[in-house]
Each structure stands twice: as C-alpha cells, then as structure tokens.
Amino acid sequence: MSLLKLIGVLLDYPRDALWEHGEELLAAAQDDALPPARRMALVQYVRDLLATEPLEAQERWLALFDRGRSMSLLLFEHIHGESRDRGQAMVDLIEAYRRNGYELSARELPDYLPLLLEYLGQRPPEEARDWLQHVSHIIGLLAARAGERGSSHAVLLETLVEYASGVVDIDALRRRARQEPRDDTPEVMDQLWEEEAVRFGAEAPAQDCDPSATRAPRPAAAPSHANPQVQP
C-alpha cells in the first residue's frame, strides 16, 4: 500500500472493515521515505485508531468532517463553493481520471480527498506531488484547523502537505485558523438550518419557494465513497 493510499484510507469514513486490515495499515505507516518523527507519529495514529471502537471512531470523524464546511474533504467546496465553476471543475477532474483508466461509480464525487489520494497513489511520484502542490494551501489549512480542534487527524493532513512541498509552516497556519470563526458549533449549525429551511404557510416569504433562493442543508451522514475500480 502506497503512502498516499494509506492516508486516503485513514482520512475516509472509518468503516468496520478497516480494523480487519490493521497489520497492513501499520506496515504501510512505517514508510522509510518519511522523516523518523513523522513516521513515528503516523504509526502511533494507526495504533490509536486500531485501539478505538469503530463506533467511537466514526463519531469522531463525523464531528470533524461533517459539521460545517471549513473541514470538508470535498476540495472544490473550498475553491468554488456553490458556484457553477464547481460543476465544470468536477467534469474536468473526472476526465483526467478516465484518461488514466480510473473510473468512478455514479455515486462518487471526484474532488473527495480520500478518492483523489487513491488515484494519486497509482501515479508516478512526480505527478502526484504536482497535483498535491496545487491544493496544498487547502490541505494545509485543513491540517491547521484539525490541530486547533485537537483532532488526531491533523497528523495525516500535515504528512500530506509535507509530502507535496517538503515543508509546512503549520504554526503560521494554526495562527490563521485560530482567528477563524468556528462553523461547527451547535449555535452555528442551528442558524444554518434556520436559514436554509423552507417555510410554508401565510408567514412564508415568497422567495422561500424560489429554487434560486434556497439550498438544501448537507445531511449529517457518512459519505457514499466506495473504492473505485481501476480499469485496464
């Protein structure tokens, strides 16, 4: 298992099958290409994960990556938001996958970071680093935000940025993240639901039923990502 695929697997929603491959995960974490300190941190992350009950690990994942948009693992959400450019960017990314024999299922979003890492894990290292350098500013902020929230996932994201660029000023990124308003608090989440709820009845303003004025809230559920198959 390549380092990028390992990080992708560990960043993905932790399904029960993950614990069945513990030895393989530990072996992949002991990558000689990593600096000793980073390698030890990655190995410790895997050991801690394997010692955690699956339900608890799943709850932690949802609390970090599925509440608010600042920690979304959908990369284009950070770049394009809800603009129309996001749709075209997804089409372009799917075409890039297909040119190299990598087909997605109909339910998969191409900009989902764990999926991108699985793809890049099969590409030449120079190409993979080039791809990651283009999004390293996003991954670096994700790493900083995860660290500020006390999440152990920070080590995965920090490792990814270091793989792409060799160095990362995580302290500077954390200072920036510290100044950002949190978007995963109960108060903010309640406000988001209130703003996005469709209201009916005599008190409902007319624009509530205008599709251009409403946006369905994201469900708090596990992503539908499944391991894509590489076509020969």
UniProtKB/TrEMBL annotation:
Residue ranges, annotated region (Disordered): 200-232
Record-linked InterPro entries: DMSO/NO3_reduct_chaperone (IPR020945), NO3_reductase_chaperone_NarJ (IPR003765), TorD-like_sf (IPR036411)
Compositionally biased region (Low complexity): 211-232
GO MF entry, a single one: unfolded protein binding
GO BP of this protein: chaperone-mediated protein complex assembly; nitrate assimilation
One Pfam family here: Nitrate_red_del
Keyword Cell wall biogenesis/degradation: no
Keyword field: Nitrate assimilation
PANTHER family in alphabetical order: NITRATE REDUCTASE MOLYBDENUM COFACTOR ASSEMBLY CHAPERONE, NITRATE REDUCTASE MOLYBDENUM COFACTOR ASSEMBLY CHAPERONE NARJ
Protein's recorded name: Nitrate reductase molybdenum cofactor assembly chaperone
